[in-house]
Amino acid sequence: MYSCGICNMKFRHPTLPKEKYFSLYDNSLTTVWPSDIYRNDWKLILDYVHKNLSPGGKILDFGCYNGGLLKQLDYRYKKFGIEINKSAALIAAEQNSATVWQSIDTVPVALKFDIIVATDIIEHVENPALFIEQLMKKLNKDGTLLITTGDAENKLWKFFGSNWWYCFYGEHIAFISKPWLDYFSLVHNKEIAHVENFKYFNLTKDRLLISWIMTILYGITPIFYLKAHQLINNIINSNSGGSPRSAGISPDHLFIALRHKRSLNDFL
Predict the structure, then answer these.
(1) Short-list 54, 37, 55, CA closest to 46
(2) Is the pTM of this model over 0.90?
(3) pLDDT for 179-202, tens place per residue?
(4) How many other CB atoms are found less than 10 A from the CB of residue 125?
(5) Which domains does the chain have, with CATH numbers?
(6) How many Cα atoms within 13 Å fall on the side-chain side of residue 205?
């Protein structure tokens, strides 16, 4: 893990060939990622969309998976998605009467969107700035890009370093923060319309305690934690991956709204 002294981005190096990552995402599994209404990132997005997007507005969910978020959106909106997983994309399209493409490059050139959403995506790309620029080119002049991701500057992450639970996943390769956003918006002439921290899930007291124990054990001694987890897997005949399951223990995620910066001519 490294940190850029100029833009404040944290990143993993070296990374795997892109084909390796694509093989992780483009598979037949359609229920791997959490897809229920109790996700706080979805609640923030839904609140923002319903308050700011008029009926008939076009919304694109980049990385829509099986369409869980699209399903929660008001039926009055025109729904679109991008999803590399062919099986999940098919479900998303059928259940939401949505048009779903496999990549941004296959979206019709003339088609623009009022809101583009990217939840839990930007940490998977090697160049977050380029990724944002590509998405914002598909926005209408007054459109908004909504992003959710882990906050690389949260206090617990800074305490545990690369042993922070969010770094456990090898496909997480780039990590942004509020300082990175300030740098990006200045260099790329973008407006930060909104940014706030949030907890990924609302956990029960019992689950919160267990998650904290797992987080601390992994943070202090990841080798012991992983060996202990493997031993438990062998005893109970399980093949779970060993993730600390720490999502929701703290407000360690960011909800971000970005827009094109307006010029004086836009107001004349």
Answers:
(1) 37
(2) yes
(3) 999 999 999 999 999 999 999 999
(4) 16
(5) 2-201+250-267 (3.40.50.150), 203-246 (no CATH)
(6) 0
